[in-house]
Structures are given as structure tokens and as C-alpha cells.
Amino acid sequence: MALPKVAADTTITNLGMRSDEHLLHFGLYEEPFVITGINHRFCYLSAQHRSVVERCLAVIDRRLGFGIVQGAVGTGKSTLAHLIYSRLSNHPEYTVAFNNDPAVPPTGFIRNVLAEYKQPNVGRQMDQLKNNFREFVYEQVLQQDKNVVLLVDEAQTMEPRTLELVRVLLNFEGDQGKFVQVIFFGQEELSEKLKRYKNIENRIMGVAHLEPLDRLETQNLLEYRLYVAGRKKPLFTSEAIDITHRSSSGIPRSICAIADEAIHLGYEARVDIIDEGITREAVKRVVL
């Protein structure tokens, strides 16, 4: 027996059709200002961001051992950490791991790091875990001529005992230099925290601080992301960019949040350009 036909839910269908109409309205192929996840195509690197990447790579390639990158929330630390991880992972001379949850006891930290390096967690005691890590590093460096790199995000959350463990790992060295290159990425209190632990602070060989973007860099970020998303001509007026920069304090995450809301408001108003009025309304609606 044939089954009865069921009428389509036009409400759901229409909602689905409308989901990307704001993009089509502004000549976009995809969302330009998404702030969740890491999409390297949309990663705008200002001069200071490029400088930070170069300084991190200098610490790594010269095998100096330890560097830190710090800045306010939303300035792009995690983005740069992922970018460096992706870049190094594509080159066979590096063995690289990324840890973004370091707020654990030392045993948990080293077990997580070994897992990131795809090494078995043999043993429960710290001495055994450190021996496992040492054997792995020595094999990578001395037998395979690799440069072992550990990138740690949210480093300001690390426990004192875990910081002491990192100090021990930094003691692995030879004629080539440090066997493990560690880069901390953290919020502005990171350097103040490390000052309380002189044994590790004295090992810092490179410090970089991410500052908010200036007005021109804000404009460049907006235009770069719009270009990647498919729009080849300006969308925001100069006054709209001024408001976005002032209201966001130059923080990239906040800039993108305002711009994303402004695009939706602009589509609702069926305008072709995002002006001062729409941007002010977007600022009111965004939690910064």
C-alpha cells in the first residue's frame, strides 16, 4: 500500500532558504566574521602578529628553549599558536605538540603532552613519566635529528608544580642547544606569574606582547576577511570603521563580533553599505 504524502514544512524550508541570504545580499560566499573555531584562511596577520610569529620561530629554530607570548583576551594568541602548530606540523624536521588545557597537576600535564606526541603513557609515577619523556626527546633529537616543540596555550592557568616540571624539561640539552622548545601563550598576567618563579623566568629567551590593533589595522582586518569571503569592494563606511575600532578597543575578537552583527542588521534593513547608524546599533547588541 502506498504511503500517504506528507506536506512539506514550508516554515522550516523557508528558514533554511533564508539562512544565507544575508551573505548573497552583500556578495559573500561564506561568513566573514565567525569567531569560533580556527580557520587559517581568515587569519589576518598585522605587522605585529607577523613579528610575533617570527620571534617564536627564532626561539624554536635557534633551539633557545623557552619563549612566551602574552596579551589581552581576544588579541589572537590562540590563533597564532594554532598557526605556528599548523606550519611546523607540515615540516618533517619538527616534532610538535599543542596543549590548550595546562591547568592540571604535573602528572596529568606530562601524560597529556606524551599523548599529543602520540607516545604511550607507560607508568603512573612522575619519575617514570619523566623518563618516558626524556627517552622520547633524546630519540627524536639525537637519532632522528628532529626539533621537538611544545606549544602551551592558556599558560597563565598552570599550577606552580607544573611550571616546575616545565623547568625540568627545559634542562634537556646538548651541543645542538635545548632539546625541547617550549612556547607559552597566555593572558597579560602570565609574565607577572612567572616572576614569582625565578628558576623558570631566568630561562625565558624571548617575550612578545600582542597589542590591540590600531585604526588602520582594524580596517585592514575587516577588508581582508570580507575579501576572503568573496566581497571585492568596501562594505563598511569610514565612520562605521571608526566606531568599530573605538568600541572594540582594537581587540580582533570584538571587531569581528561587531562586524558580524552589523552585517545581519544591514541585511534586515536591506542596505548596500554598512554605515555609522547600523554599526552603532550593532555595538549596542554585542556583548564585548
Explain the overall architecture:
The chain is α/β, with parallel strands linked by helices and 288 residues long. It has two domains: 47-210, Rossmann fold (3-Layer(aba) Sandwich); 213-285, Orthogonal Bundle (Helicase, Ruva Protein, domain 3). It has 13 helices and seven strands. The strands form two sheets. The protein has a five-stranded parallel beta sheet with strand order 2-3-6-1-7, sandwiched between helices. The chain has a two-stranded antiparallel sheet with strand order 4-5. The longest helix has 18 residues, at 126-143. Mean pLDDT is 90; it is low at 1-18.
Summarize the structure.
The protein is α/β, with parallel strands linked by helices and 288 residues long. Helix content is 50%, strand content 12%.
Fold topology:
Layout: H1 10-18, H2 21-25, H3 47-61, E1 66-71, H4 77-89, E2 94-99, H5 106-116, H6 126-143, E3 147-152, H7 160-169, E4 173-174, E5 177-178, E6 180-186, H8 190-195, H9 198-201, E7 206-210, H10 215-228, H11 238-248, H12 252-268, H13 276-285
Parallel strand pairs: 1-6, 1-7, 2-3, 3-6
Antiparallel strand pairs: 4-5
